[in-house]
Description:
Elements: E1 27-30, E2 36-38, H1 39-48, E3 64-66, H2 69-76, E4 79-81, E5 92-94, H3 98-105, E6 110-112, E7 121-123, H4 127-133, E8 138-140, E9 147-149, H5 153-156, E10 164-166, E11 173-175, H6 179-185, E12 190-192, E13 203-205, H7 206-216, H8 223-268, H9 275-278, H10 300-305, H11 317-323, H12 325-328, H13 335-349, H14 379-456
Antiparallel strand pairs: 1-2, 1-3, 4-5, 6-7, 8-9, 10-11, 12-13
Amino acid sequence: xxxxxxxxxxxxxxxxxxxxxxxxxxxxxxxxxxxxxxxxxxxxxxxxxxxxxxxxxxxxxxxxxxxxxxxxxxxxxxxxxxxxxxxxxxxxxxxxxxxxxxxxxxxxxxxxxxxxxxxxxxxxxxxxxxxxxxxxxxxxxxxxxxxxxxxxxxxxxxxxxxxxxxxxxxxxxxxxxxxxxxxxxxxxxxxxxxxxxxxxxxxxxxxxxxxxxxxxxxxxxxxxxxxxxxxxxxxxxxxxxxxxxxxxxxxxxxxxxxxxxxxxxxxxxxxxxxxxxxxxxxxxxxxxxxxxxxxxxxxxxxxxxxxxxxxxxxxxxxxxxxxxxxxxxxxxxxxxxxxxxxxxxxxxxxxxxxxxxxxxxxxxxxxxxxxxxxxxxxxxxxxxxxxxxxxxxxxxxxxxxxxxxxxxxxxxxxxxxxxxxxxxxxxxxxxxxxxxxxxxxxxxxxxxxxxxxxxxxxxxxxxxxxxxxxxxxxxxxxxxxxxxxxxxx
Length: 489
């Protein structure tokens, strides 16, 4: 609406938006180029193209900020005409006061009628005239003084309490406002006996009830008993309701305990023994879980477990156990067998450099069978036994680690000694090859010298050669010890 206002004086050109060519509405300034626009105008422009509409510099929504408050005050103080000037409103005011004028003061604004139920729209200046002729206005009845809508007067007049009416029971003429009170005490109204709830079937005019029937009614003499009986029945009903609620609560607790008990049975599994299995004094044979010669549970365990729901087992549990059987085998071997298997594995991965089986005196340790769980004891006892077994396994693992470290240290010392002997032998061979090459070079050099002297100079006088020195060769070192069979040396 702000863009369609008529200004009394032409606004300053510095207060005009270059997009809508109207004075600023909610002025907004860009942080990058410091240009000012209307808020709605610049937001719509940036959505279509992220550039400033004036200098085409990059512009984003984050670069928009409210303009200086002075600019907002300048545009809000511009004098404008009322938008309904064509309808007859001559009002001119500052732009910031226009909203309040349109909401409360302008007489040419269309507003609804203030009466309930009237949906007619009219000008604010005509609302007072319409209130005098509106059919939904509230008026006062001339007879009884009640407030009634003008449109309901035709319905109210026949029922107005200021007029008289005839009682349909005794034909008396009374005011309509007191008709209901008269019916409540009219002697000709047919009423039942007060003891109808107890079984009396009499019904007649009200004056006959107190004059004749009440003295001859058989239930009148028993009204004290009926009162006591009614109070007793009420108390029993309340007590019965409380007992029902308590029973429902107890049933819920019982169901919860049954579910918990079933969960405990499932969790305990073969360690759960029923009262029949635990009690032998009643003459019922004790149910025993048979075991075979190796200590494993017999098939009767399956028949015993079939009497209760099986424990929930994931469908792929057995596949996982079968797939990981080889991987998990070392964890269930005794310490000696585990140590032996690890030594063989290390020997294979090292390419034959570390072969524990080739050492003299080395022997494979026998496998110790693992005893099965004792299902005849309590779960606590089984857990204590498992804890003791784990403690023993931990001690065995620690001992195995120490022995493995000692074996690796001895093997490293042997390998270092063999490498030292190899280095010494290779060094001797290198010295021998060097001596042979030096002798060969000396022979070749001597022959070339003799050939040159024979062709260019006189024949030299032979000089007796010095006695030949013995050629020294470095000894070939032999290993200080005989290598163990099975090594590369």
